[in-house]
Amino acid sequence: MKKQNNVRSLAAGALERVVEKGESLSTILPVLQKPLNDKDSALLQELCFGVLRMLPRLEALTGQLMERTLKGKLRPLHFLIMVGLYQLIAMRVPPHAALAETVEGAVALNRQQMKGLINGVLRQFQRRQGELMTSVDDAKVNYLHPGWLLKRLQLAWPDNWQQIVAANNQRPPMWLRVNRQLHSRDAWLALLQEKGKDAYPHPDEPDALRLDTPCTVSQLPGFTKGWITVQDVSAQGCIRLLEPQNGETILDLCAAPGGKTTHILEAAPTARVMAVDVDAQRLVRITENLTRLAMQAEVIQGDGRTPSAWCGEQQFDRILIDAPCSATGVIRRHPDIKWLRRDRDIDELAALQSAILDAVWPHLKQGGTLVYATCSVLPEENHQQITAFLSRHSDAQLTDTGTPAKPGLQIFPAPDGGDGFFYAKLIKNVNAV
Ligand SMILES: C[S@@+](CC[C@H](N)C(=O)[O-])C[C@H]1O[C@@H](n2cnc3c(N)ncnc32)[C@H](O)[C@@H]1O
């Protein structure tokens, strides 16, 4: 293996960038994975996700094992030690290989002289594992969440917060969406089973299948031909509620990378869809997804707070707002969220969401449908947001999703179920104003 391809050192570098520099793992990882073979690429992902999932425990253990915290130029080695500990605690890598490769990581990080230290710390952990694990076994460490988030979850969901936290700490299932324009769900499932794999249909979401065992997309029949899309089942619920119809004009706002744009077009292939997102780089992903599925939509860069700048006075039959949010419902898929988000972000996000809702509402036709969705489990972004919206807009009527006293449907992440998600469906009522 080339020096720079030591997967443990790559993981340590990526983790330092996430935890200390606030970079998103979703941005860093694909770049690091590009030159790697499938096996190393999967290992890198596992090491990064695993360490981020159990960071407080690994930090506490490192604190017990080291007299002094490694700082400055030696900081990457702090993360390398946690990569080593994670393998010894949670992976099936033979301990001697985990140790040898992690120690070699110090060489790849140009800290050859620190090999002995890494080796010593990991060997000490092996010798004292039981005692050390007990010494860091307290509630703060065991929940594996930052204090501010734990507090918000406990306050919002006194009966459910433990279930949410436990689900966040698990590996997520892999959900698929069958393009039923091309195959029925059963027909595609039969193609999958011919390849020796299995999946389970969801009882309420007609396109959704949960894979028995996650795999790479290249192993899914017809992926490149658009027969199948990887998408969590909760995200699929947005389009079931939106009910797009052929021939309608539909705005998919906050659309990148286009998971729901293509779902709209699978449900209503002749709908005229405008897909808008503020992030130019992420817009490219919408175009890639449309191309893979051989679909067309108008893809526009724009800010949801200023719709007249990108659609003039146009009104739509249906609008989906898949709002920017804390993503606290998808922590199991993106464990870096726990360490990137800050408490103060929640109020800022709630203000952005309400500005988008208010700005876009005039662009919904009379009698039209707007679905507001987030992948958050925090009330400020969800039912409180919709309660406030309903009080500001007397022509907005809640339908199918909750009650005016507690508007919207809140889904919690569940081990064999979907991600944490929220939806509210609103109709513009001609007679109500
Ligand atoms: C939850 S993601 C959307 C996921 C997408 N709908 C899908 O299904 O693939 C939220 C998106 O909101 C976009 N966004 C953030 N602020 C925005 C704004 N002010 N106006 C429009 N889009 C915004 C982000 O760039 C991000 O792509």
From TrEMBL:
Keywords assigned by UniProt, alphabetized: Cytoplasm, Methyltransferase, RNA-binding, rRNA processing, S-adenosyl-L-methionine, Transferase
A biological process from GO: rRNA base methylation
Domain SAM-dependent MTase RsmB/NOP-type: 164-429
EC numbers, comma separated: 2.1.1.176
InterPro entries: MeTrfase_RsmB-F_NOP2_cat, MeTrfase_RsmB-F_NOP2_dom, NusB-like_sf, NusB_RsmB_TIM44, RCMT, rRNA_ssu_MeTfrase_B, RsmB-like_ferredoxin, RsmB/NOL1/NOP2-like_CS
Short name of any one Pfam family annotated for the protein: Methyltr_RsmB-F
CDD domains on file: AdoMet_MTases
SUPFAM superfamilies per the UniProt record, alphabetical: NusB-like (SSF48013), S-adenosyl-L-methionine-dependent methyltransferases (SSF53335)
Top EC class of this enzyme: transferase
Record-level Gene Ontology MF annotations: RNA binding; rRNA (cytosine-C5-)-methyltransferase activity
Catalytic activity: cytidine(967) in 16S rRNA + S-adenosyl-L-methionine = 5-methylcytidine(967) in 16S rRNA + S-adenosyl-L-homocysteine + H(+)
GO CC entries: cytosol
Subcellular location: Cytoplasm
Superkingdom as given in the UniProt entry: Bacteria
Binding-site list for S-adenosyl-L-methionine: 254-260, 277, 303, 322
Keyword presence, Electron transport: no
Catalytic center residues: 375
Family in the record: Belongs to the class I-like SAM-binding methyltransferase superfamily. RsmB/NOP family.
NCBIfam families tied to this protein: PRK10901.1, PRK14902.1, rsmB
Function: Specifically methylates the cytosine at position 967 (m5C967) of 16S rRNA.
The protein's name in its UniProt record: Ribosomal RNA small subunit methyltransferase B
